[in-house]
Write a structure and sequence with these properties.
The chain is α/β, with parallel strands linked by helices and about 220 residues long. Helices cover about 40% and strands about 20% of the residues. The radius of gyration is 18 Å and the shape is globular. The mean pLDDT is about 95.
């Protein structure tokens, strides 16, 4: 039986903890690394290299994530990576569901419990801008950054406690940006299969000594 460790983004921590075995080694990294792909790649590689020898397999709770998972490798351990662009697909439950939403309404902002808790939302972003450049400049920056968006979606993931708190906050964000809001149900299937297996065609399994390349992920 393989001894597995999971390294994932903090935005999917709650969803993974729903079904991960209590004795599984888990490490959750800070939100926002995907905005700096080289930093994400460097951090993940360091975490892979630091993983003790008793582990046979490292599961990554990341997708392509702005190419931040490309070039990763382990000399002695198998790597398993979801074939997904980012954590939206992981929270929706499949690549097919992601593509359906993305191509149906591409100008969409997605929020989830994890993004809200870790400050990955436009209202938090606005407050940060306001402190640095003042209210009027911050409003202009937000208007430019989000002018092509039409919809905000809150992904209601399984096991979510007190969903109204997150829904109400998402509604405030939508009103601030003057977007229509929609609530859609997420699914744990993608993340559950990452943790529990079996790993089908929706996952890239990288044998020890091999390097992750884009053509393998998509």
């Amino acid at each position: 039986m393989e001894i597995k460790k999971i390294i994932a983004c903090s935005t999917v921590k709650s969803e993974i903890q729903l079904f991960a075995p209590e004795d599984m080694e888990m490490e959750f990294l800070e939100y926002g690394l995907h905005r700096h792909p080289h930093k994400l790649q460097k951090t993940l590689q360091e975490k892979i290299n630091e993983t003790p020898g008793e582990f046979d397999c490292i599961l990554l709770g990341y997708g392509l994530c702005s190419h931040g998972t490309l070039g990763l490798k382990s000399r002695t351990k198998k790597l398993v990576i979801p074939r997904a662009h980012d954590c939206i697909a992981l929270l929706l439950g499949s690549r097919e569901r992601y593509n359906e939403e993305f191509f149906g309404e591409p100008g969409t902002i997605y929020l989830s419990r994890g993004w809200i808790e870790h400050g990955g939302d436009p209202l938090t972003q606005f407050e940060d801008y306001k402190e640095r450049v003042g209210r009027e400049n911050a409003l202009w920056v937000m208007e430019q950054e989000y002018k092509n968006y039409k919809r905000l979606v809150f992904i209601k993931t399984p096991g979510l406690e007190d969903p109204e708190k997150y829904i109400d906050y998402s509604r405030r964000v939508a009103e601030f940006l003057d977007l229509k809001m929609q609530i859609i149900s997420g699914s744990a299937e993608f993340l559950k299969k990452l943790v529990m297996g079996p790993w089908d065609e929706n996952f890239l399994v990288v044998e020890p000594g091999r390097v992750v390349i884009r053509e393998q992920l998509f």
